[in-house]
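Exercise 4. Each item below gives a protein and its sequence. For each, produce the structure-token representation.

Item: Single-stranded DNA-binding protein (Jejuia pallidilutea).
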Amino acid sequence: MSTLKNKVQLIGNVGNEPEITNLESGKKVAKFSIATNEFYKDSNGEKVTNTQWHNIVAWGKIAEIVEKFVGKGKEVALEGKLTSRSYETKAGEKRYVTEVVVDEILLLGIKGENATE
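Answer:
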């Protein structure tokens, strides 16, 4: 159980085209968001969809895979760890961000689908 201290597994749809950055060190980073949906019935028996958005960060080889094969609307499964960071805006406001840093990614979808779409 010691390996389960900070582990996140998500399956969802990519919400925006991944933002790819090439760093001076030669490393690549990809940032994008995914939506996960949860379905339940309310007290009236009506089906309700609850959508959660997650900020995703991928580094190195995984970022290269994201750059080549992941686009808006694509369904992906990923595993990683939850991280939090803060930064200051140009106006001096402090902002906090929670992200999933990806260790593994699996491209889902219809077999035979063009992966570069």
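Check: The first helix runs from residue 60 to 69.
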